[in-house]
Description:
Helix content is about 45%, strand content about 10%. The protein is mainly alpha-helical. The protein has a two-stranded antiparallel sheet. The termini are far apart.
Amino acid sequence: MDNSEKNQAARKKLTREEMNAIVAKAKRSQEDKIKGYREKSLSIHPWICARCGMEFTLKNLHLLTVHHRDHDHDNNPADGSNWENLCVYCHDNEHRRYTDHLQGEMPDSGAAKSESVTHRPFAALADLLKKK
């Protein structure tokens, strides 16, 4: 029996409760990780969105998120240099822009992508104006 067969056999032996426990443990671990760097960022940086300037208080602090500037959630330096506090709206906007960039949907340097045009609706307009 090779390693992949042993792994498959080990997976088949897990009960649903054991699998649920593993998933719950992974979720708790991820939540603890996020909570750790969020609390640290909130203690280092002001409670202001770095993009739109919205100010936060304890009442609305849940709307302030921590954004990883390099988009690497495992890069969490103690000095907070890879974090910026963004409101949920600016954070969503930043991630949308980043995914658009990765997918190549963002135009280069603000210029629209040129496409070849086959239909020229005003091609004969100059001739019509000359006749009058």
